[in-house]
Amino acid sequence: MGPTPEGEPRYQPYHHPAAGWGAAKSVTRFLVREGALVDGPRAIMKMNHEDGGFDCPGCAWPDDTKGLHLDICENGIKHVTWEMTRKRVGREFFAAHTVGELSGWTDFALEDQGRLTEPMAYDPDTDHYVPISWRDAFELAGRALRALDHPDQAAFYTSGRLGNEATFLYQLMARELGTNNLPDCSNMCHEASGRALQASLGTGKGTVDLKDWETTDALFIMGVNVASNAPRMLTALTEAYKRGARIVHINPLVEAAARRAIIPHDFRDMATGHSTRTSTLNLQVRVGGDMALLRGMAKAVLERSATDPKALDQEFIDRHTAGFEDYRKLCEATPWEEIERQCGLGRADILEAARVYEDADRSIVSWCLGVSQHEHGVDTVREIVNLLLLRGNLGREGAGPSPVRGHSNVQGNRTCGIDHRPAEEFLDRLARVCGITPPREHGLDTVGTIAAMRRGEVKVFVGMGGNFALAAPDTPLTHEALRSCDLTVQVSTKLNRSHLVHGRQALILPCLGRTEKDHQRGGIQSTSVEDSMSMVHLSVGMKRPASRHLLSEPAIIAGLARAALPDSRTPWEWYVEDYDRVRDTMAQVLDGFEDFNRRVRLPLGFRIRQPARELVFRTPSERAEFSTAPLPDVVPAPGTLALGTMRSHDQWNTTIYSDNDRYRGIRNLRTLVFMNEDDMRERGIAEFDPVDITSTAKDGTTRSLKGFLAVPYDMPRGCAAGYMPEMNALIALCDYSAQSDQPLMKHVRVTIGAAG
Ligand SMILES: Nc1nc2c(c(=O)[nH]1)N[C@H]1C(S)=C(S)[C@@H](COP(=O)(O)OP(=O)(O)OC[C@H]3O[C@@H](n4cnc5c(=O)[nH]c(N)nc54)[C@H](O)[C@@H]3O)O[C@H]1N2
Ligand SMILES: Nc1nc2c(c(=O)[nH]1)N[C@H]1C(S)=C(S)[C@@H](COP(=O)(O)OP(=O)(O)OC[C@H]3O[C@@H](n4cnc5c(=O)[nH]c(N)nc54)[C@H](O)[C@@H]3O)O[C@H]1N2
Ligand SMILES: [Mo]
Hey, what CATH topology would domain 641-754 get? Predict the structure, then answer.
C-alpha cells in the first residue's frame, strides 16, 4: 500500500538514539520530494506558537508552555508538508483516469497526486469523477438525505482533525436531522480510555498537564511508540530523566524511545551527537498482558503495606475512594503464578516496577493503543487508575493518568458533541440553546455503521475527513459495506482509497487544510482545538489555499445542512460568516466553555476544568471508584500467536510516506510480520521467508494474508506484530471488545506458517 519500494527489503536492527540527525536528514529528503523546501521551513516556524500560527495536525501532544523551544518534530514536519505540497489533483486528472484504473494504484500514489481542488461527483456511465458545482453537490447530498425513510439511515463519520467549531456544527446538523449516528475514529482509538476514566473518575479524560510531566518522580509509559507517534514527548522524557525521574517502558517491543534520544531543538546535543537516556526499566510484557502486570504491581504495593504503612496513602483512600476493600481482597486472591503467566514476566521484574512506583512520591501513567485496542481495554485502564489510587496519585501536581490521544483534535471532537452515546444533559442544553429536538436513542459507532451499511440499513455515509475504507477493520467487508450505500460523501484534502470505494452515487468535497487561510465574510477565521491535556487554543492558517474553489469545513457543513434541512431555523450561513458566533453558541451548550471567545484568545488558550483533578468525582458514589475485574486470559492457545497491528515510523495512519521504518531497522518493506526468533524456528521459518498469516475470528471464520515476509524481532514468545492498514483484512468485524466496542486491533489471534 506504500510507494513502490526503492530497493530490496533490508533489516538491520537500529541501535542509535531517537531523533537527532537521522530525523533531520529524513525531513530534508521529504521537503525536497514535496517541492516544499521554501514553504515548509517557513510554515514550520509558525507551528504551535503561543502568539498565533496553526496547531500542528501531527498529534495531540500539548504545546510547549514555556515558549523556549522550537516545538516541532520530524513527523509533525512531514505531516504539515504533506498538506502543503505544490502538487494538485484537478479535473484533468480525473478525466484522464477511471475509478477502475485508480483502484489499481497504491495508496501512496493516490495521496501523492497532491491536493484536491474542486468538488467532484461520480459518473457511473463513464466510471470517472466529473466536476460538479458546490451548489449542485450540496443539492445532490441534500436530496439523498431528504429521501431517507428515517434519519438513522445516514451516518456521519468524523476523523479527529476537525476543528471544534466545525465539529459543533456537524453534530448539530446530524441531530437536527434526527440521528446520533456519529461514528468517529475514537471508536477505534481511545473509546476504552474514555469509558474507563468515566467509570472510575467521572470524567472521560486524563487529569494531568505538561506541568505535571515536568515535576513527576516516575513515569510509566505503556503501549505507545513515542519516537514515531508522539515525538514531542521525547523532550518530556529526556528532561524527566535528567531531573532524576524514573521512567518505566511497558511494551512487547523495546521501541526507540525506550533507550536514548537526541533532542532536535537542543542545538548543542545535535552538534555533539550527545544523547540522553530515556528509560530506567523496560518490561517486555506479553501482548494483552498489561492488566496482569498492573495487578501484580498493586499486589506488591499491598503486600509491602503490611510492614510499611507508608506504601499506601490510606488517608486518600479513605477520603476519596470507594471499593478499596474489595480491590484489596481481589489482589490478595489473584495468585502470583497467574499474574506471571498472564503478563509473561518474572516476579523479579514485576517487583522492580512496583518498587519504582512505591519509591516515587508522584507518579504518572501514560498509555496509548497498546492498552486500549484490546478486548479488556476498559478493565486495563481502570486497573491503571486502581494502581494510582493506592498511593493517592491523583489531584495533585506530578501525578495522575495521562492517555496519549491520537489525532490532533480527537479529544476536542468528543468534547464538542461527536458521540454516538451523548449524555442526556448535553442533549437537553443543545435542545434549549439551539431550538432543535435531538434524538435520544443512541446511534451507531464505527463497527455498528459498517454492519448497518452492509445490511442496507445505512444508505448515506458522510466522511468528514479520514479514510474510512482503509482505517476500519475487515477491509473487504468494509468495502462491501461502503459500496452498498446509495451515496457516499467524502470531505477531504487528498485523494485516498475512500474515494474509490464508494456508493452508487459519490461526492468528493475538497476542503481547506489547517495551514491555510480561511477567509469568510467576517474576515480571516481561526478555529480552536483541544490537545491531550485539555488545553483549548486557537489555530489560524497562514498559507494561500491550495485552490480558490476550496471551502472550509464549517462552510461545507453549512451547505450540506441547508440542503438537507430546508426548513431549518439554525442560522447556518450566519454562523459561517464569523466563527465567533459559533463559539458564542458553544459557550452556552458545552460544559467548561463559558466566555469561550475571550478565553480562547489568551496566549496559551485555556484549560477545560477537570473535576477529577480537583478531587470532584461525578461517579455514582461521588468518589473515585476502584474496579474489580478478573484478569482476562491472554495466553495464546498452543500453535497460535497474538498479533498486534501498528504504525511504522514513516506513516500517518493510512497515509504512507515511505516503505521504511527507521527505528525498527526496516527498509523497503511493509508487508512483513515481526516474530520472536524461537517462534520462527519452531515453524521452520527463517528471516525474510514468505509466510501466510491466518486469523480466526470469534465467530470461527478465518481470514488470510499471503506472502508476508517474516522478520525476527526482540519480542516475547507468542506475540507477533505488523503494519496497519495492510493487516486490517485480518481483523474480523465481529472481533470487537464487549467493553468498548473497539475493534481488537492489538490482539488478532493468528497462525503463521511458511507460504503455501
Ligand atoms: N507519526 C505519526 N504520529 C501519529 C500517528 C501516526 O500514524 N503517525 N497516529 C496518531 C494516532 S491516530 C494515534 S491513536 C497514535 C497512536 O500511537 P501508538 O499507540 O504508538 O500507535 P501504534 O503504532 O499502534 O503503536 C502501538 C504501540 O503499542 C505496542 N503494543 C502492542 N500491543 C501491546 C500490548 O498488548 N501492551 C503494550 N503495553 N503495548 C503494546 C506496540 O509495540 C507499539 O509500540 O499516534 C498518533 N500520532
Ligand atoms: N489495524 C489497525 N487499524 C487501525 C488502527 C490500528 O492501530 N490498527 N488505528 C485506528 C486509529 S487509532 C485511528 S485514529 C484510525 C484513523 O482513521 P482516519 O482518521 O479515518 O484515517 P486517517 O488516515 O487519519 O485519514 C487520512 C485522510 O484524512 C484526510 N485529511 C487530512 N487532513 C484533513 C483535513 O484537515 N480535513 C479533512 N476533511 N480531511 C483531511 C486526507 O484526505 C487523508 O487521506 O485508524 C484506525 N485503524
Ligand atoms: Mo487514533
Answer: Barwin-like endoglucanases (2.40.40)
Counting beta carbons within 10 angstroms of the beta carbon of residue 718, is it exposed (0 to 12), middle (13 to 18) or buried (19 or more)? buried
Q: Is the pLDDT assigned to residue 64 strictly greater than 50?
A: yes
* Residue nearest to ligand 2 atom 47, measured at CA: 471
Indicate which residue's Cα is closest to atom 24 of ligand 1: 646
- Where, residue-wise, is CATH 3.40.228.10 in the chain? 191-403
Quote the cell numbers at residue 704.
488470510
| Residue range 317-347, pLDDT digits in tens | 999 999 999 999 999 999 999 999 999 999 9
Dihedral angle over CA of 634, 635, 641, 643, nearest 10 = 20
Confidence (pLDDT) at 68: 47
pLDDT confidence bin for 54, thresholds 50/70/90: confident
Q: Cite the residue boundaries of each domain of the chain with CATH code 3.40.50.740.
A: 89-186+409-604
**What pTM was computed for the model?**
0.94
Looking from the CA of residue 513, the nearest atom of ligand 2 is 35
Atom of ligand 2 nearest to the CA of 655: 23
Pairing mode, strands 702-712 and 672-675: parallel
Ion ligand 3: residues, Cβ under 5 Å: 189, 406
Ligand 2: nearest atom to the Cα of 490? 38
Residue 287 grid coordinates: 501482548
CA 753 – CA 679 distance, rounded (Å): 10
At residue 72, the 3 state secondary structure works out as coil
Torsion 734-252-303-216 (CA) sign: negative
**Smallest-distance ligand from the CA of 407:** 1
Fold annotation for 89-186+409-604: Rossmann fold (3.40.50)
- Going from the Cα of 290 to the center of ligand 3, the distance in angstroms, rounded, reads 20
Sequence-distant (6+) residues with CB within 8 A of 32 are none
C-alpha cell at 246: 524514573
What's the distance, CA 41 to chain centroid?
Answer: 26
Q: Is the CB of 116 under 6 A from ligand 1?
A: no
User: Which whole number is the average pLDDT over 369-388?
Assistant: 98
* Superfamily of chain region 191-403: Dimethylsulfoxide Reductase, domain 2 (3.40.228.10)
